[in-house]
């Protein structure tokens, strides 16, 4: 009898330990993310990293994975040759670039409003206009899948933009994903970035080093933009709480953007789509 009680107690202890651990310990988070939560220098990209790294899978499906943190790439397709002109949405004779969209019926009213605000943020001061899809062949299909991500540029046909609710439904995050769909990579991936920022490789989370690659981009004759909505924050993918990106010109420059497109972001859109630089669209 004693033995049975002992066995019972023993098994109760064993099963209680992992259960307790599971219930009460917070999930592992790199120190950089933990320490930054109370600070006010967060950026759009920090929100995307939080949503994608801690809730979502990096593999979207068997053949599609995320590059640079939130750009979807399909294996087998000519991956990523859209650093500028090869994947543009077509431009209408009236001078606008109309992007047809389908919005998942899974979104509620408030979510829909936020997504439309994200669209307006991109439209303001640019020639881009989002229009509900009627018959268009090429369109973005906005879906609350796992995480916040988009393909780069126009792929032809239907292409998903994932905006998970609620973690991706901030206006800035939405606008950032639309910028990828328009054809833009992250600002610090620019070909000339080493003149403007120092990448602090030893502080980067080991298996995310590839998120800091640079590419042969067409910079459209525009200056490097620390304030771009497409710029990683200073602590992106930090494994030890130290900065991973340091501006070369001044330590006081804020890197990244917390809310909206910068003026240069809007100019980028207008130049890529040859719409002219004026704001009166
Ligand atoms: Zn991004």
Automatic annotation (TrEMBL):
Its cofactor is Zn(2+). Residues 1-19 form the signal peptide. The keyword NAD does not apply. Coiled coil: none annotated. Keywords: Disulfide bond, Hydrolase, Metal-binding, Metalloprotease, Protease, Signal, Zinc. One of its GO terms (biological process) is proteolysis. SUPFAM superfamilies: Metalloproteases ('zincins'), catalytic domain. InterPro entries: MetalloPept_cat_dom_sf, Peptidase_M12A, Peptidase_Metallo, ZnMP_hatching_enz. Its EC number is 3.4.24.-. The active site is at 177. PROSITE patterns: ASTACIN (PS51864). Transmembrane segments: none annotated. It comes from the Eukaryota. One of its GO terms (molecular function) is zinc ion binding. This is Metalloendopeptidase. It comes from Mugilogobius chulae (yellowstripe goby).
């Amino acid at each position: 009898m004693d033995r049975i009680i002992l066995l019972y107690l023993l098994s109760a202890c064993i099963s209680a330990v992992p259960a307790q651990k599971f219930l009460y310990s917070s999930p592992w988070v790199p120190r950089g993310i933990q320490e930054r939560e109370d600070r006010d220098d967060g950026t759009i990209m920090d929100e995307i990293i939080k949503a994608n790294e801690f809730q979502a899978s990096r593999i979207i499906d068997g053949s599609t994975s995320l590059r640079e943190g939130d750009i979807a790439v399909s294996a087998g397709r000519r991956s990523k040759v859209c650093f500028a002109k090869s994947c543009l949405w077509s431009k209408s004779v009236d001078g606008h670039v109309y992007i047809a969209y389908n919005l998942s019926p899974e979104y509620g009213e408030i979510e829909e409003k936020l997504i439309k605000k994200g669209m307006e943020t991109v439209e303001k001061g640019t020639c881009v206009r989002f229009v509900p899809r009627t018959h268009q062949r090429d369109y973005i299909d906005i879906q609350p899948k796992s995480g916040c991500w988009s393909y780069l540029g126009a792929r032809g046909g239907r292409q998903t933009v994932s905006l998970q609710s609620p973690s991706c439904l901030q206006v800035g995050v939405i606008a950032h994903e639309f910028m990828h769909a328009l054809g833009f990579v992250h600002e610090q991936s620019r070909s000339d970035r080493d003149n403007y920022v120092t990448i602090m490789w030893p502080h980067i989370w080991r298996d995310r080093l590839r998120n800091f690659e640079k590419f042969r981009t067409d910079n459209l004759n525009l200056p490097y933009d620390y304030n771009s909505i497409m710029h990683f924050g200073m602590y992106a993918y930090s494994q030890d709480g130290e900065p991973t990106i340091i501006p070369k010109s001044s330590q006081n420059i804020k890197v990244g953007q917390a809310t909206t497109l910068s003026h240069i972001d809007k100019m980028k859109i207008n130049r890529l789509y040859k719409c002219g630089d004026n704001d009166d669209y």
